[in-house]
C-alpha cells in the first residue's frame, strides 16, 4: 500500500480471543487505513487467513505455536508482526533461512510494542558503558507464561553489548553461595529478576550503579492499550522491511 493508496491494508489477528489479541482487533478496526479481515482463535484453521486475503498477520498467540504459525504465514506470502515470546536463536535462524528463500516477505518479532519500553531498551544499552553495575527487574501479571520476559532478555543483551563496547569486564558480584537462586537469572552476564503479581500488567526497572551514584530507567504499562501504537506501527511498516527484524526499534528512527 502506498501513501496515496485509498485501499485499506488487510489484517488478520491470531490469538484474537486473548486480552492482547482483542485489544489489537479493536485498534485495527479503529484505524482508517487498516481493515480487520480475520479473527483467528485457538480452534480456527490458519487457512482462514489466506481465504480472507490478508496481507499482514499479527501473531499474539502462545510460545508453543508461534513459530509454526509464522512458518505457515511466510510460506503463504503473508507479512507477520509477532508479539509472542519464546523465540530462541535456533528458531530465529530457521526463520531467517526460510525468509531467504521467499523474497519480499517481512517479519517483525517485537519483545515489546510499547514505545517507552523500546526507548528504555535503547537507553539501557547507551547507559551501560558508564556504570560498574547493572541489573534488570521485570514485573508482570501472574498469567504470563515465560520468565524472564522477552523485554528483560533483550534489555540485558543490550546492556551486555554496551559494556563490551566500552571494554568493561563482568559486573562486580562477590556472591559465593546462592542455593535458593536469590540473585535471579543471568542473561549475557546481567542479573535479571522476575516478579509475578496480581494487578500488574508489564513493568521494568533497569538499575545502574557507580561510585556514589545510582541511575534508574523505568517503564510501566498500566493497560494493554499502551502496546497498540507499536502494533499498528509494525503492521504499517512490515511490508517495507523484507526479511526478519527483531525489535520494534528497527522500524523507528532512533539513530
UniProtKB/TrEMBL annotation:
Chief location bin: cytoplasm
Enzyme class: oxidoreductase
All copies of domain Dihydrodipicolinate reductase C-terminal, residue ranges: 116-245
Reactions it catalyzes: (S)-2,3,4,5-tetrahydrodipicolinate + NADP(+) + H2O = (2S,4S)-4-hydroxy-2,3,4,5-tetrahydrodipicolinate + NADPH + H(+); (S)-2,3,4,5-tetrahydrodipicolinate + NAD(+) + H2O = (2S,4S)-4-hydroxy-2,3,4,5-tetrahydrodipicolinate + NADH + H(+)
UniProt binding sites for NADP(+): 42
One Pfam family, short name: DapB_C
SUPFAM superfamilies on file: Glyceraldehyde-3-phosphate dehydrogenase-like, C-terminal domain, NAD(P)-binding Rossmann-fold domains
Physiological role: Catalyzes the conversion of 4-hydroxy-tetrahydrodipicolinate (HTPA) to tetrahydrodipicolinate.
This protein's name: 4-hydroxy-tetrahydrodipicolinate reductase
Amino acid at each position: 500500500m502506498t501513501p496515496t493508496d485509498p485501499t485499506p491494508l488487510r489484517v488478520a489477528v491470531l490469538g484474537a480471543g486473548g486480552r492482547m489479541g482483542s485489544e489489537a482487533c479493536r485498534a485495527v478496526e479503529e484505524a482508517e487505513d487498516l481493515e480487520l479481515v480475520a479473527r483467528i482463535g485457538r480452534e480456527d484453521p490458519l487457512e482462514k487467513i489466506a481465504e480472507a486475503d490478508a496481507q499482514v498477520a499479527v501473531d499474539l498467540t502462545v510460545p508453543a505455536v508461534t513459530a509454526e504459525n509464522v512458518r505457515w504465514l511466510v510460506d503463504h506470502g503473508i507479512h507477520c508482526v509477532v508479539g509472542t515470546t519464546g523465540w530462541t536463536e535456533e528458531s530465529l535462524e530457521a526463520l531467517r533461512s526460510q525468509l531467504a528463500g521467499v523474497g519480499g516477505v517481512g517479519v517483525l518479532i517485537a519483545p515489546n510494542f510499547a514505545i517507552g519500553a523500546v526507548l528504555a531498551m535503547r537507553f539501557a544499552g547507551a547507559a551501560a558503558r558508564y556504570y560498574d553495575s547493572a541489573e534488570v527487574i521485570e514485573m508482570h501479571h501472574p498469567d504470563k507464561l515465560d520468565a524472564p520476559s522477552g523485554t528483560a532478555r533483550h534489555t540485558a543483551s543490550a546492556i551486555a553489548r554496551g559494556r563490551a563496547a566500552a571494554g568493561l569486564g563482568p559486573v562486580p558480584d562477590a556472591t559465593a553461595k546462592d542455593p535458593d537462586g536469590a540473585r535471579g537469572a543471568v542473561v549475557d552476564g546481567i542479573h535479571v529478576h522476575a516478579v509475578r503479581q496480581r494487578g500488574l500488567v508489564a513493568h521494568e526497572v533497569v538499575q545502574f550503579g557507580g561510585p556514589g551514584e545510582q541511575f534508574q530507567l523505568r517503564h510501566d504499562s498500566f493497560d494493554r492499550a499502551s502496546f497498540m501504537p507499536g502494533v499498528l506501527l509494525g503492521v504499517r511498516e512490515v511490508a517495507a522491511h523484507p526479511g526478519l527484524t527483531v525489535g520494534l526499534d528497527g522500524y523507528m528512527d532512533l539513530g
